[in-house]
Amino acid sequence: MSENHSLSDYQDLDIQSYLEAKLWISSILEPAVCVTGMVGNLLSLAALSSKQLKGPSYFFLRSLMVTDFNVLMWIFISNLMWRAQMTTYAFAFFYAHLEQPLINGLMCTSNYVTVALSIERFLAVCRPVSFAGNTHNNLNAKICVFLIFTASVLVATPYCFEFTVIIKGWDERANRTEYDLTNNKEVIIGKYANAWNAYMWLQSGVIRIAPFFLLLLLNIGTFCTFQSKMKWRQQRQPNSPKERRNRSLTEPQNRRLMCLLAYCINVGQQVIM
Question: What is the DSSP letter of 163?
Answer without folding.
Answer: E
